[in-house]
Amino acid sequence: MLADPHERLGLPLVPTTAAHGPLSRTLRLVLAMLGFTLLLVPYFLLCVLLLPWRPLRLRLGNWAGATAGRWTHWLVGIRYEVVGESLEAQAPALYVQNHAGTVDFWLAMQLCPAPGSGTVKREILWVPIVGVAYWLSGHLLLDRSNRDRSIAAMDEISALVHEHRISVWILPEGTRSRDGRLLRFRKGFAHMALATRLPIVPVVVHQAHRFWSRGLRVHPGRIVVETLPAISTEDWTRERLDEHIEQVRQVFIDHLSPDQRPLALADS
What we know:
By secondary structure, the chain is α/β, with parallel strands linked by helices. The chain has nine helices and eight strands. The longest helix is centred in the first third of the chain and has 28 residues, at 22-49. The radius of gyration is 18 Å and the shape is globular.
């Protein structure tokens, strides 16, 4: 087990300022929505024009997501600092990120090297405006309720990755941790690794739940994102899938602080 990131990185990883008050928070979120609206109009039009060219829509989605993420973080006073390996130098890759807060989505959109694809559940299509924007972007949709569609999606991912050197960004826990502690990893990212043979790059986000977890409570401050060396998947096999998943999860456990490790390991 590595040393606590507070010591190892030499950085303050918890908020040092108070959360925004109700009036300030409301004003900031209204401005964020105004910015999204101004961005979405030209974005929708360009996506429709680029419908025959999915790789170009992916790049457009990367740009729009990064712009929205920077705008949102600037408004709420959150900054991030990336330490470790270059994400761009390891592309194309399967970027695997832990998920402890709302801020994680905005970080992923800013950090994913272009051309890159996010991965979300198919249910996002039912979310007004957001679902249409995601579908137009050409990013990947996962359907856990239908095995045949899941297999077809993996074939689609493999073809897309190899033809256009697309990276994939995924949050393997599948849902936000309520207390910041690492949850079990679902198998979707491992099946993607088997289908694409992309190297896996662990992206460890420290203490995100303390800055912006669930709801609208936001603490301004600096979040540390630690990017680690790629893990080869060339020799992965379906028979050892659970072992491979735990190998990747253990990397996160080793690098997270005790208060973000699974409870059984928090004091080890």
